[in-house]
Amino acid sequence: MAGPTTVLSQSSGVDYSKFKHNNPNHSRLPCLLCHRRETNAPRPAMPGGAGHAPCAGCHAKEFANSGHQICTICHTDPQAGTVKAFPRLSSFGMRFDHARHQNLGRLSCNSCHRPLRGGVALSIPAGFNAHTNCFGCHTQRAQSNGRDISSCGTCHRMERYARASQSAPAFRVGFSHAKHDRSEGLNCNECHRIQAGRGRVSAPQPLNHHAAPRAFSCMSCHDGKRAFGGDDFSVCKRCHTGTTWRF
């Protein structure tokens, strides 16, 4: 847990301002040893219940001393028992495999993605709020093919957290998901493909005039036949709208 200042033990020089998941002794432990899933609350539960279990299981000597610096990992005031705020997600990367989830058969794109910014964009689950989606299937003690899928390690890895961008280039040229939906006879698979072996989803090039040869792009449909396009500049404003677009 991150603290506002670095607290060094004068006797050992150990930094007790935060909990280090990448400590060799910590990293070999299963996530569920400390973070018990008792509910589907989006925010993970902090360890340290009755008797400071499970921390005291390894640090019995330190916890025997109520004034030990180890207490400052979680407490702003150890004597009063005041607990620090839950830290922001920063050191756990997120791995999501679209192909694996598509094969389940009961999920679709709109199971996780919602219209955003007036239907122009689509949301991307991120932060603790993403658990609201995931925990619909990854419930407490849930299993898949005999494997526990309720633990943090099912989706997270020890690496820098980088939130997926919600500002794709297509949105800057006036693309709108709301106008490319079932009312036009379209679905997500018309433009997006799950890339085999990579677990990611492809996207068209947001170009109508200078797309790469053989690439799937706006021009694949907006070709002057299936939809407007070509050199008819009278319809430019169908895509290029607002004050921010430019050639």
Keywords:
single chain, 247 residues, little secondary structure, 6 helices
What does this structure look like?
- By secondary structure, this protein is mostly loops.
- The protein has 3 domains: 87 residues, no CATH class; 112 residues, no CATH class; 44 residues, no CATH class.
- Helices cover 11% and strands 8% of the residues.
- The protein has 6 helices and 8 strands.
- It is elongated.
Overall tally of structural domains = 3
Fraction of residues in helices? 10-25%
Distance between the termini: 47 Å
Proportion in β-strands: 5-15%
- Helix run count: 6
Concise overview:
By secondary structure, this protein is mostly loops. Helices cover 11% and strands 8% of the residues.
